[in-house]
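Much of what follows relies on a compact textual record of a protein's fold. A record is reproduced here so that you can trace the correspondence yourselves:
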Amino acid sequence: MDDQEQDGSKSGFRAVGEKAAQVLRESVTALLSVAIAAVALWMLVDTYLTGRGPSPVNEAYARQKDLLLYALALLGTVTGYYLGRVPAELHAQNAEREAKQAQEEQARTKRRVRTAVRQIKADATAGEKGIGVRHAGPGQPAESSVIGDLDRLLADLED
């Protein structure tokens, strides 16, 4: 197997590994979010039932209420992070995909321009068009400002 095939298989394994790691991260995050939501809901129901009774114990009810405030703050933080992170990651992936497409389009355009410039240069060199050719006089080679310009343009496109 040559180096390119090995690199291709390594990048394939790397992509599968990254995908599996991403799924694992998402699963753990979702599990934690569900667990925090379940605990917060249980605490909310328990606090409600304690306060609703015929003679609630004021001190126990106050403690439960305070704990519920912390649990709901934690639930809000986790939910806000999780729900805000997913759209942000999707936007980042879309931006990366669009940037890659723009780079590919730029490369295709450069190739097409290079091909066209080479064809124009070949036509001008062969004298088919006679564009920009200045005749220097008897016995001296003709100069072409167009060919020089095309050479400079090709050099710029190679960068």
About this structure: Residues 1-5 have pLDDT under 50 and may be disordered. The first strand starts at residue 133 and ends at 134.
